[in-house]
Amino acid sequence: MLLQVNSIDVYYGSVQALKGVSLEVNEGEITSLIGSNGAGKSTLLKTISGLLKPASGSISFMGRRIDGLPPENIVSLGIAHVPEGRMIFPAFSVLDNLRIGAVSRFNSGKPKKEVLKEIEEDIERVFSLFPRLKERKNQLGWSLSGGEQQMLAVGRGLMARPKLLLLDEPSLGLAPYLVKEVFNIIKMINAQGTSIMVVEQNARMALKASHKAYVLETGEIVLSGPSSELLKSDQVRAIYLGAGVEQR
Asked: Domains in the chain, start-ordered, CATH in brackets?
């Protein structure tokens, strides 16, 4: 097992955002987390990546407790978080945004020259996944379209060479044809060996792309199982797979 979240409670002040949440991410798989706005999906990813601290419970990655570690240490262990809203550096070029994503790798103990060579190789990997980024490699982040900024955010996450990539709403605000493209790339990244946990309101796309899924409602896991089974669930279909979600 790659990631294990065990009975975590998370608060914003006096408001409890997560209530005894437990889940697992297996190595080599895509795990999706679906739920409505305000369910706590982003809060869970922020807690896994160290941006928030659980009041109770534990989080283990590759058998090691990581709750309580600072975010930079969690990145160094192999977890990269692509937040909702892309959060690229708008005044930096595409290339510089990608290189920033690899900063943690200079703490690996490898010679600097070797790390720099590997970073350039990984930039080419990102460009092979996202050819449009290569065409725009010298453009500033603010000048990219919404879809291109999302590609850059995902590419920047990959530059840390993560064992686990956390994706928060990768399809948010994208045209339907770009949503399909982004999820095709997510599956390609997984096929190349990176485990993925994706938080997504587009439940249909998330379930079709993932191996396993969890449903989060008001801070609690209410359903879980193989994604193919949840796609057939009457409860999931009624709440999350309606016309509004499907056409998004």
From this structure: 3-246 (3.40.50.300)
